[in-house]
Structures are given as structure tokens and as C-alpha cells.
Amino acid sequence: MLYLTADFFPIFVPLGVIGFYRYLVFMIKILAWFVYRPIQPAECPRYKASKDVTIVVPTIDAGEEFLEAAQSWLACNPNRVLIVTEACMKDKIQAQVLSIGAAASKFTVMTVPKASKREQMCKGIQYTDTDILVFADDDAIWPPTMLDYILASFEDEAVGGVGTSQTVRSVGKRRSIWEILAGFRLTIRNIEVAASTHIDDGVCCISGRTAAYRTVILKDPDFQHKFTHDYWRGKYLLNSGDDKFLTRWMVSHGWATHMQVCKEAELLSTFKDNWRFMKQILRWTRNTWRSDFRSLCTERYIWTRHPFVAYTMLDKAINPLTLLSGPISVIVLCAYLHYHLPAWNIIASYLVWLLATRFIKLLPHFYQRPVDLWALPMYLIFNFYFAFMKIYALLTLHVTEWGTRKEATAGDNGNGACC
Question: How far is CA 12 from CA 21, 207, 282, 329, 344, in A?
Fold first, then answer.
């Protein structure tokens, strides 16, 4: 090995340190995920879904998945469901609700004058009178045990917010490459949030696809004002990134959070099955940069309350640099005419290494869906593209439009979930 690297030994040493660091972190996360256990529902629970849970769903154009999602919410027996849309869409949404049948009596359709996800969420908060409020996307499909497992975490009075694990619901009969990539990201996310929850009871983001909170926290007028007047650098009003804001609010106000990562609390959600998936990721990446900067540099509560989460935020910030160090090294070696290995050997060795390590990282996913193995090379390409995207997102944090729909749209899976 020393012979192979002797020509550039001073360069290979720091690269080796970077590689060792990256995989040490990965092994720590895997180990924590492996020993993590979700909180089980109590035999005599303090909270019951039928009297203590209101579901709030901000939306404007609920698609075909809405009816299936609504049926799955009803199977969890909540107290009621508030659908909040913009005024011009009320009749359409109301018709969809009525098509559910007799159970439609549990639904109330409410409106705001103009679509704005945060305004719609606040409208739902104002009309919630149960102890627990659960925000859900209009395409979030739940298992019948979802609310039981969410409520189990609230047995601890210190817990203010609870999140869940996620997986992909295919739009068509087969998953597109975009949906497979989304599935890869969710697998890694589920591992990371379980690990951070086990290590220091923290999480980077409670994804808004399904997120539960104590209603008393959200009823605070100060919270609602700051939630709907959230500006980046004091002049760019933020509409997406609501789940990031809520997670930071829990941390800054002394509330604990918990993630239920298990099949009993795993939701199904749809993703864009075309190139617009990349626009979703760009929006989520900008939200992550803004929120993590505030957590680490402005608010700073995360350092003392959840140091491992703070560390993972820093790690994600430098990830583009560590990822790009590999191909840069390969290019340098190939361009060096006197290096003792031919260019094809260097490139082939590097690609084999990348495929092997990514395969290991995604083993939990391939165990569940081995049919997705063919997409592993595309995942490599996506990783390098994403590294450049993160840099581009950092340079364009002033851009706050939704990206895949109109600016004020709600419900477009617009929650930063692959933090």
C-alpha cells in the first residue's frame, strides 16, 4: 500500500484521514440505529386518539392519494381532521371529503384567503381544541398503529414534538428512478434520526409529512407570529421550511423531541416521479442551510442540548468538500504523467470502491427492496450532482419560492424530510 501511494504520500495521508473519519461516523450511526428501540404504547395510555388528537392538513389541490390517505387517518380514529385550503379551492376539497362517505363527518374543511402553508397551519392550530395536534401532508398514508405509537412518546411530559419514519409510495406500478433515489435518501434518513434520537434525544428536523406537537405549544401567540413572519436576513419571507422552524422552536424553548422509527409508525408518501424531484431537493437543501445556520450560529441551543445533532449539522455542511476530494484526487493522479499506475486502473479502482461503500451504506434498503440494486450507479451520479447542488443552494439562499408549484402552495411534500 505504501508503494502504491509513495508518489503522493503527503496528499494521500490527509485523504486517508478524511476517509477514516467519514466511515467512523457512519459506523457510529449504524451502531446507534441498531440498538435504538421505539417507545411502545402503554397499556393504560394517558392520551387516546379518539379524544386527544386533531389532524391538521394544509393543502390546496389534494391529488388522487388524498382519499387513500384520509382513509388511513380515519383508521387511526382521531378526534377530528381539519383540512385547511385556500378559499377558491374549498368546493373541490369539500367534494373529495364527502366522497369518503359517512366518516366525512369527522372532517372539517376550512379556508384562508390565499394559499400560504404557514398561514394554513396556524388556522388549523386556532381551531384545535385537543391536547395533541398532528400535521400531515395530504398524501401521507399511515399504518393503523400510527397514532398509538405517536402518543406513546407523549407519555413523557417533557416531550413536545414527535416524528416518524418514512418510505416511498410509488405513483405508478413501478418506481421510477426518481422514486428509487428518494427511497435511498429516506433509508439513510431513517437511520440517522434513529441514531441521533438514541445518542442524545435530538433530531435535525421532525419532518412535516407527519409531525405531532402538544397543542399548548402552538397556541402561543408569540410562536404563531414568528412562525408566519419568518424572514431570512430580515427581508426574504419563508413559506416552506415550516418543519425546520418547529423543530428549532422545540429546542429553543426547552421541549424534548422523539422519533418513532418503526414499521408501526412508518408513513408512505409520494414524491415527484420526474426531473422535478431535483427541484424539491433544491428547496429542501436551501431550507437545511438556513435552519442549520440558525441552529448553530444564531440560536446555539443545539450545542448544549443535542451536541451530536450539532455535530451532524456541521458534518453535512462540509460533506460536499469531503465528497469532491475523491474525484479531484483521481483527476490529479490521471493527469500526472509519471504516476506508476495507468489512468484506467485508477478510475476503475475508484469506481469499484465507491460502488462497494455505497452498497454497504444502503444494505438496509436493499434488504427490503433488492430490486432497486440496479439503480446504485445512478445513486453515485446523484451524490456528486447533489454535492454541487448543495454549494449552489448555499449561494442562492435568498431564493424562497416553492420551486415545483406556485410560490404560496401548501402540501407539496414541501417539508425538509432528507435533512
Answer: 14, 39, 33, 9, 19
